[in-house]
Amino acid sequence: MDSIEPILSIRGLDAFYGGSRIIQNASLSIRPGEKVALLGRNGAGKSTLMKSLLNAGPRVVGDIHFDGKDISALATDARSRMGLVLVPEDRRIYSNITVAENIELGRHAARAGAAVSSDEVYDLFPLLAPLRQRAGYQLSGGQQQIVAVARGLMGAPRLLLLDEPVEGLAPVVVDEMVQHIARICETRELALLIAEQNLSFARRCTDRVVLIDSGRIVFDETWEVFDANPELKERHLAV
Q1: What is the model's pLDDT at position 1?
Q2: What is this structure's pTM?
Q3: Alpha-carbon 55 to chain mean position
Q4: How far is it, in rounded angstroms, from Cα 58 to Cα 17?
Q5: Do residues 130 and 123 make contact, with C-beta atoms less than 8 angstroms apart?
Q6: Which 3 state secondary structure label does DSSP give 223?
Q7: Which of 162, 205, 213 is nearest to 41 (CA)?
Q8: How many independent structural domains does the chain possess?
């Protein structure tokens, strides 16, 4: 595994909103096919780190390499077309258009000739097939989240970033999301970075843990190492 070049590599990354430094000297690498959980309390910097990777809000200083290329100066759309796709925490489903139209929007972020077909999306998310013509405002929170993930998949990501994908969802919907994510990873062979507070969900979807606390990455190891150090949960995750 160590001989495989990372799909994403960041080094010495700082991210700012105005004069406030939210992310401090962060370094992280993710290899092709890896599934990584980014855990931390509310306000720890999870969403800011995700947005920094896409150039989607904060001012960023530091090195960001994707697929071996320096993308630090690239605009958000250019990064997306390289296969770096973010599903944001607030879903951003358009309420006045249909499920099918919301999902189709993801095609515009796809690499040239790499967009996922509509048929494949509905095969991967069978719950959405009967909802194709339903308007966004007619969906439950869980349905909206599944649409958001399906729209992200339409962009043919090589690394899919999911920001709090199960926040506020019922346990049965969380279980469905675990199944969807497992199916996506198996079918598309993509890498995954999930920012979460739901420890159980993150554990079921990933095999590596990164802890962020007050904007600093303080732990980066397997779940086994995390479980062997119970003080980490108390120190960095407990409210």
Answers
A1: 47
A2: 0.90
A3: 14
A4: 5
A5: no
A6: helix
A7: 213
A8: 1
